[in-house]
Design brief:
Number of strands: 13
Distance between the termini: 28 Å
Strand order of the largest sheet: 11-10-9-12-13
Strand content: 15-25%
Length: about 350
């Protein structure tokens, strides 16, 4: 297959998605990489040419890559995830409204252009968690104890806070200081726990943990509501049960077993069949079951090959080995992460 990855500068040296790109190339697929923040792109020709089977986005919220992905979708090209789903979760204010409207456990959410506007919220609802509506990777997330601290240095309007743009505020959910991050790889769910960015002094060893039925139901519901296939959900275990505090498209997939092989196989499947929001439903039934079974076999083949020192391509790689038309993009050499491949960290 022919794939185009849009990778933000922030992820230039991260294992996710760079290891996925290397794996797909090793399986015989052509993968072009575009760096939206530092590349001149002849967008009218590149996108209209339709020279790729799917476009994959790994960028920060508010980055230029989403516009390119939307342009590709506008001319009928497949995107991973579906571009409408990405837009729905990248705007945290919009995501909160959609999720609560569908009955998902999301805190009451306030929005304002200036942090001082949050002083109108009843003091009984403090402390508040304040963050930019287009934030990512825990950037500029602040815990504000009382209304009079909204404008303190280091607060939402501090020197490292957001400049312009919409802010959101949610009442703080009491918790143990541990975040639960649940990843979905095309329907397969994996739960991990790690230290909350609001409690950096709380020592937590990042590790995979059992997935409870309630958390699994909530996470699957996020995928259904937003139409996501590759995503992560940040969940707090509060006094009244699990609460969703963030949703990320194409996250780091840290602590997911054989993450590179699993995510690579999922990208191929979505490129072949279309993302959930563009026709996943139409691929249901017996055919979808066969394809899911094939993906599992692909991952197992990859694991077996890894034990013998070779990379085994999935069945779909055979089709990708055929000659492809010239690409309007250069295919730059993608630097491998300096840390071991097993550590595939990235942005949240």
């Amino acid at each position: 297959m022919r794939l185009c990855f849009l990778v933000e500068e922030q992820y230039r040296h991260d294992g996710m998605p760079l290891e996925v790109i290397h794996q797909l190339r090793a399986w015989g697929h052509r993968v072009d990489v575009v760096w939206p923040g530092r590349s001149l792109i002849r967008i009218s020709e590149a996108i209209q040419a339709g020279s790729h089977d799917a476009w994959v986005l790994k960028t920060v919220s508010g980055g230029p890559g989403l516009t390119l992905l939307e342009a590709a979708a506008s001319v009928g090209l497949t995107t991973v995830n579906d571009v409408r789903a990405i837009r729905g979760v990248r705007d945290k204010a919009l995501a909160a409204v959609i999720a609560r409207g569908k009955g998902l456990p999301v805190p009451v959410t306030y929005a304002a252009a200036r942090p001082e506007e949050f002083a109108e919220i009843a003091e009984a609802e403090f402390p508040l968690v304040v963050k930019p509506a287009d934030g990512s990777s825990g950037r500029a997330v602040r815990l504000v104890a009382t209304p009079d601290r909204l404008l303190e240095p280091g607060g939402p309007a501090g020197p490292d806070g957001p400049v312009g743009g919409l802010l959101i505020a949610q009442p703080y959910v009491p918790n143990s200081g541990t975040d639960l991050k649940v990843y979905s790889v095309a329907g397969e769910l994996y739960a991990t726990e790690r230290c909350s960015p609001l409690h950096p002094a709380h020592a937590v060893r990042e590790r995979q943990v059992p997935l409870t039925p309630e958390v699994a139901r909530i996470t699957a519901g996020i995928g259904d509501v937003f139409g996501l296939d590759l995503y992560g959900v940040d969940i707090l275990l509060g006094p009244d049960g699990p609460v969703v505090v963030d949703i990320n498209d194409f996250p780091s997939f840290r602590q997911v077993p054989d993450a590179v092989a699993r995510v690579s196989a999922a990208v191929l499947d979505l490129a072949r069949n279309g993302a959930r929001g563009r026709g996943r439903e139409a691929c249901g039934g017996e055919a979808s079951v066969r394809e899911d079974a094939q993906d599992v076999q692909d991952v197992q083949d990859t694991q077996a090959a890894g034990r013998t020192g070779a990379a085994a391509p999935p069945a779909t790689a055979q089709a990708g080995a055929t000659a492809a038309p010239p690409s309007p993009f250069a295919a730059p050499s993608v630097p491998r992460p300096t840390r071991p491949a097993a550590s595939i960290g990235g942005g949240r």
